[in-house]
């Protein structure tokens, strides 16, 4: 059994946002607070569990919720619907780059020098999510069928308002809509972005609501499914013979689509953090260059736990996973918030002026 002392060390080193992204939990972020749908009470339908990312404690706003006295490990166990505490702590430790010995006596920093980066990731770590997710899929977990995606796609082509939103407001072309097979769910008033694995298997669905009311309450975007196992746009790029030697990493679906249209191979993380699985996929693709092009607020400003911003955190993750930093560069979007807002000519200029990750790292350390 793992002691409470070790458990506390793991929790203290946990990056809450990274953890939620790896577990495919939808969340809303407000400064130091993230909110998720509470897994401790039945039929929770709002984002009523609030987690403080600095203190790594949480509370639920619902009356009579049974969450009292629980820590972050309990939360993960509840989310994954498992009672295997040791496995959960070991999983969380590996996310925090810590290692617990087999006898559960000691905890130490994972040594990347002796073991070669991601290749040495224990299978147990990567399979943790899969194993427990399979259990979940049999229950209430929503898994969409390809036929549903087709139905939504056809609905989009017949719906004026969402089409106008996509083509006029977001400047998408008919080709984009076909290529990424976008859809519209008329009942929920959501634009649908299917997310495929590199083998073409439907893994997740991104919903972008057009209902102001829903956006206000739940946020504009919601991802359902195993988004941490996908890089949005990779499947589409493979199919269209894009150059997989230079891959641009972006945050959102619209960013990936916009850059694809310009001819770049862009894949979206579907969040501000990169999962271990996404790192592994990139490691296996081994492109000559990976270009980070995150939203502007991820490049600047201060980020919660690590005290570093989103781009620095991702550079760190690449480094720890055994990537060569010479092969990573950074695009900074001065004057724009998202990549998809930047006019093509301007983007090409910014792209050509991208900065080696090492240089970006140094300029951020000096500031
Ligand atoms: Zn609750």
Automatic annotation (TrEMBL):
Any single Pfam family the record assigns to this protein: Zn_ribbon_DnaG
Keywords, comma-separated and alphabetical: DNA replication, DNA-directed RNA polymerase, Metal-binding, Nucleotidyltransferase, Primosome, Transcription, Transferase, Zinc, Zinc-finger
Query: Which GO molecular function entries does the Swiss-Prot or TrEMBL record give?
Result: DNA binding; DNA-directed RNA polymerase activity; zinc ion binding
Q: Which residues form the Toprim domain?
A: 245-333
Q: Which SUPFAM superfamilies does the record match to this protein?
A: DNA primase core, Zinc beta-ribbon
Top-rank taxon, per record: Bacteria
Coiled coil region boundaries: none
Q: Which InterPro entries match?
A: DNA_primase_Znf_CHC2, DnaG_primase, TOPRIM_DnaG_bac, TOPRIM_dom, Znf_CHC2
For this protein, the record's SMART domains field holds: TOPRIM
Q: What is this protein called?
A: TOPRIM domain-containing protein
Q: From what organism does this protein derive?
A: Caldicellulosiruptor owensensis (strain ATCC 700167 / DSM 13100 / OL)
